[in-house]
């Protein structure tokens, strides 16, 4: 009887283990590099298409975030959906280009900007676009978007297609400030009693049709678009929160593209590249990832230790190892996408020997502790965990013992506010393409982010430069100011750029001309299905 | 007479439950770290809000008022039937919940059906053929179902049946085919407990006197088991089913996220992270109702399964 029991138990354990191996074998084959498929399986990884044939010009894009905001947000929908259009947009060099405004000029002291509007444009509900629409949209939009337009005094209608922006202070960079989200135009007919939009009726190449909660946003071509009708008839944005499922859906053909910032992870790139039905694309975007210090308390109140830490980071190695090569090592706190402003000759250098020497000078053989806090919500999108571990190892050589703590978003914000940290990492996007959007918020001692995040950085000369540059009319002089600011920041390292983001995205082979721009806006107006 | 009294007592018992749950939820949300105004001001914004924007949001939403005051205001509105509006989307809370409810109900039902489809036959066979190979296998299956993490199972199913074989869609909510994989991923986990419970409970019932009587009468074994033993053995199973139903309805978050199934689970997690208080409170209220209703249904089922049970005892 005992032997019988023992045989039974042994068989049971063997059976269990065998099942587990079999099942995990299936998983390994499917997720990572293609290994020899289990016996009996097909030779290729291309699945048999079982989804019904789509209508010819319908594109389904899978994203990791929900781009529908609802009536609480002025524009209802994210700009990527091409339903509403702004007056001005930034091109891939981050220079303002005409959309609903065709040209603009500034008066002598930069306090009055005159915008000439595009004629013959209609909103999706037939209302004509003109100066009245701009005047109804901008002031309310300003309430929502105080960040970029704090200076607006009033708007003046000159005639049906000319509007004047009257500013409180000289504002030489107004077109940059109102680009994209800050000048979203919604049809006056769609504005309710409180002046807020009740529906996303814009002028764009696509019309909003339907929103299925947390599932998808359905758009239809605007045949009367002023720029000529798009090739696609329908566009569906699907919200797929899990990265693995998103790629699986692309592989099965349930979606035609993954095209948004952070929607395709660097480690998934090889799967896309090895699949003959998929195309991998990349685009440098205006987001930079920074390592920031709390300069207000030890050990990083000493500039030399900050410099040492910055020098011990191998940024190229970081990009190669944690991003699989999809990224640009940080050159400046200003993104290289802002071509006319970025300074590339003060790039942080990788010099572990010099770093050690510098740290030795300060610490003299002692060791110090530092707390690095991470925002848990960001970890799924960017390899901060890996980077922080690399940093931890490198800093240990300097005598700095870094303790890594992951905090939930709200707690992370609180810790920053209280100054209860020594280091952290975060992304920041230069929305306006204008350096003040960074310098005025991060570097200026009274900058809102400098204060709310306890960067603890204050440099008199930097403050002078920031204030002078905001209202400087001469572009050349402005460039000098921002050049000097970038040099100061590179020298004093209150924060340092780790890498500039390169967004990777993928489409199925038959999707043509779908490209992301520097603000991750897909070219829906040009794309088509072959 | 008795039944009506019983019903009334159950409905009345609802009130302290709802009150208690909402109070605790409100209190907990107050303890959560982070400035809700800052988090809400960041929602849907492409860049970090300025200090003025945060201040404006704080005042607009009354977040600067003390917690008890905010709770009282909320309670006052709820009593009048107004659950308020979502701080993130601006839509009414009631609508946000009910719009996503069918999706979650589907998934819950699917998961439980699959769970029962696996658990019932396996559990019964395991009990009837006790200590046989089948019984051992069922034990292994239950162990597997209980230990395998649902997200892993979900992903494996997707990679195998959708990507590799192309038999079923990988994600989303649509027709019957979209329904199969997520239900299986949920069902296997649910079946584990049920399987063991059915087996144990059935074994116990099979020892009963009235079963011996049935056998003595000459009734075939199959009929004995299925007609006389099964129903009463399902009592503990029904309790667990009720609990599982409540849990699953609260959102099988992981499965919903993996399969991009637009249900309540995903929505609530996002609302919590975004500090969308009216939605969180509304959801807590909703779940209290669900649990009380489920418990009541379980009690009714008890009576049907075993007529010896009286109400009120």
Brief summary of the model shown:
The complex is a heterodimer of chains A (530) and B (313). With 530 residues, chain A is an alpha+beta fold.
- What is the CA-based Rg of chain A, rounded? 27 Å
Q: Structural class given helices, strands, pairing of chain A?
A: alpha+beta
Total E-strand runs of chain A: 19
- Helical fraction of chain A equals 25-40%
Distance between the termini of chain A: 70 Å
Low-pLDDT runs of 5+ residues of chain B are: none
One letter per element, helices H and strands E, the order of chain B comes to HHHHHHHHHHHHH
Q: Based on DSSP secondary structure assignment, what is the total number of beta strands of chain B?
A: 0
Explain this structure to me?
The complex is a heterodimer of chains A (530) and B (313). Chain A contains 15 helices and 19 strands. Chain A is an alpha+beta fold. In chain A, helix 6 runs antiparallel to helix 8 and helix 12 packs antiparallel against helix 14. The model of chain A is unreliable at 24-53 (pLDDT under 50). In chain A, a hairpin with a 3-residue loop joins strand 8 (206-212) and strand 9. Chain B has 313 residues and is an all-alpha fold. In chain B, 77% of the residues lie in helices and 0% in strands. Chain B is built from 13 helices and no strands. In chain B, helix 5 (93-128) crosses helix 8, helix 7 crosses helix 8 and helix 10 (221-249) packs antiparallel against helix 13 (277-305). The longest helix of chain B has 36 residues, at 93-128. The two termini of chain B are 15 Å apart. Classes of the chains: A alpha+beta (530), B mainly alpha (313). The interface between A and B is large, with 62 and 60 residues.
List the helices and strands and how they pair.
The complex is a heterodimer of chains A (530) and B (313).
Chain A: H1 2-31, E1 58-63, E2 88-90, E3 96-98, E4 101-106, E5 112-117, H2 131-144, E6 152-159, E7 162-167, H3 174-177, E8 206-212, E9 216-221, E10 234-239, H4 243-252, E11 257-258, H5 269-274, E12 278-293, H6 303-311, H7 315-322, E13 327-329, H8 352-363, E14 368-375, H9 376-379, H10 384-396, E15 400-407, H11 409-418, E16 423-429, H12 436-443, H13 448-452, H14 460-470, H15 475-492, E17 495-508, E18 511-512, E19 528-529
Parallel strand pairs in A: 1-10, 1-11, 14-15, 14-16
Antiparallel strand pairs in A: 2-3, 4-5, 5-7, 6-7, 8-9, 9-10, 11-17, 12-16, 12-17, 13-17, 18-19
Chain B: H1 2-31, H2 36-42, H3 51-60, H4 67-79, H5 93-128, H6 133-147, H7 150-164, H8 176-206, H9 209-217, H10 221-249, H11 253-258, H12 264-273, H13 277-305
């Amino acid at each position: 009887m005992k032997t019988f029991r023992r045989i039974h138990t042994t068989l049971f354990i063997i059976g269990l283990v065998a099942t587990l191996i079999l099942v995990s074998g299936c998983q390994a084959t499917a997720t990572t590099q293609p290994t020899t498929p289990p016996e009996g399986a097909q030779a290729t990884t291309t699945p048999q298409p079982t989804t019904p044939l789509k209508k010819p010009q319908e594109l389904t894009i899978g994203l990791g975030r929900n781009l529908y905001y609802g009536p609480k947000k002025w524009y209802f929908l994210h700009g990527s959906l091409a339903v509403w259009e702004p007056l001005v947009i930034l091109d891939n060099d981050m220079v303002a280009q005409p959309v609903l405004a065709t040209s603009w000029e500034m008066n002598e002291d930069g306090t009055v900007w005159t915008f000439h509007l595009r004629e013959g444009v209609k909103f999706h509900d037939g209302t004509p676009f003109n100066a009245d629409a701009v005047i109804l949209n901008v002031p309310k939009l300003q309430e929502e978007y105080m960040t970029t337009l704090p200076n607006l005094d009033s708007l003046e209608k000159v005639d049906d297609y000319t509007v004047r922006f009257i500013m409180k202070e000289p504002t030489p960079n107004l077109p940059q400030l109102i680009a994209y989200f800050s000048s979203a135009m919604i049809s006056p007919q769609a504005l309710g009693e409180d002046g807020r939009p009740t529906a996303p009726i814009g002028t764009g190449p696509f019309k909003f049709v339907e929103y299925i909660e947390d599932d998808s946003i359905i758009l239809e071509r605007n045949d009367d678009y002023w720029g000529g009708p798009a090739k696609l008839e329908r566009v569906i944005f699907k919200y797929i929160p899990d990265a693995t499922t998103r790629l699986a859906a692309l592989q099965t053909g349930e979606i035609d593209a993954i095209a948004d910032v952070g929607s395709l992870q660097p480690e998934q790139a090889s799967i896309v590249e090895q699949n003959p039905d998929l195309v991998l694309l990349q685009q440098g975007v205006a987001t930079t990832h920074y390592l920031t210090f709390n300069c207000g308390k030890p050990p990083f109140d000493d500039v030399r230790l900050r410099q040492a830490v910055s020098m011990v980071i191998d940024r190229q190695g970081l990009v190669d190892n944690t991003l699989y090569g999809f990224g640009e090592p940080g050159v400046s706190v200003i993104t290289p996408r802002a071509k006319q402003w970025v300074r590339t000759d003060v790039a942080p250098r990788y010099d572990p020997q010099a770093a050690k020497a510098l740290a030795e000078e300060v610490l003299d053989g002692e060791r110090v502790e530092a707390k690095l806090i991470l925002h848990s919500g960001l970890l799924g999108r960017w390899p901060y965990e890996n980077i922080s571990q690399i940093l931890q190892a490198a800093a240990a050589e300097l005598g700095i013992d870094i303790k890594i703590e992951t905090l939930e978003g709200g707690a992370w914000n609180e810790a920053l506010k209280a100054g209860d940290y020594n280091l952290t990492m975060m992304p920041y996007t230069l929305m306006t393409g204008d350096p003040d959007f960074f310098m005025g918020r991060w570097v200026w001692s009274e900058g809102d982010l400098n204060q709310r995040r306890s960067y603890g950085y204050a440099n008199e000369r930097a403050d002078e430069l920031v204030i002078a540059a905001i209202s400087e009319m001469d572009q050349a002089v402005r460039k000098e100011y921002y050049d000097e600011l970038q040099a100061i920041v590179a020298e004093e390292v209150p924060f340092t750029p780790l890498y500039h983001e390169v967004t990777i995205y993928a489409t199925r082979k038959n999707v043509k001309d779908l490209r992301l721009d520097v603000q991750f806006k897909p070219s829906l107006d040009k794309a088509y299905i072959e | 007479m008795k039944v009506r009294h019983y019903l009334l007592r159950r409905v009345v018992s609802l009130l302290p439950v709802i009150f208690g749950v909402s109070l605790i939820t409100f209190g907990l949300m107050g303890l959560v770290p982070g400035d809700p105004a800052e988090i809400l001001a960041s929602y849907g914004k492409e860049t970090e809000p300025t200090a003025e924007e945060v201040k404006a949001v704080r005042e607009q939403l009354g977040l600067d008022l003390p917690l008890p005051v905010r709770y009282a205001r909320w309670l006052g509105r709820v009593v009048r039937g107004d659950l308020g509006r979502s701080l993130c989307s601006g839509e009414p809370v009631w609508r946000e919940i009910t719009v996503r409810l069918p999706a979650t109900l589907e998934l819950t039902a699917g998961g439980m059906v699959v769970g029962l489809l696996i658990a019932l036959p396996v559990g019964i066979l395991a009990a009837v053929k006790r200590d046989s190979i089948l019984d051992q296998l069922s034990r292994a299956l239950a162990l597997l179902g209980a230990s395998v993490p649902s997200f892993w199972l979900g992903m494996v199913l997707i990679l195998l049946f959708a990507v590799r074989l192309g038999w079923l869609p990988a994600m989303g909510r649509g027709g019957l085919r979209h329904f199969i994989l997520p239900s299986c991923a949920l069902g296997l986990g649910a079946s584990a407990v049920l399987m063991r419970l059915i087996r144990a409970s059935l074994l116990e019932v099979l020892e009963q006197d009235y079963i011996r009587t049935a056998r003595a009468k000459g009734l075939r074994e199959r009929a004995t088991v299925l007609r006389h033993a099964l129903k009463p053995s399902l009592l503990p199973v029904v309790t667990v089913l009720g609990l599982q139903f409540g849990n699953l309805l609260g959102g099988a978050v992981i499965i919903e996220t993996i399969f991009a199934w637009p249900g309540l689970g995903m929505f609530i997690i996002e609302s919590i992270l975004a500090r969308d208080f009216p939605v969180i409170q509304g959801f807590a209220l909703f779940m209290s109702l669900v649990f009380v209703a489920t418990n009541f249904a379980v009690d009714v089922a008890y009576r049907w399964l075993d007529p010896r049970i009286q109400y009120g005892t």
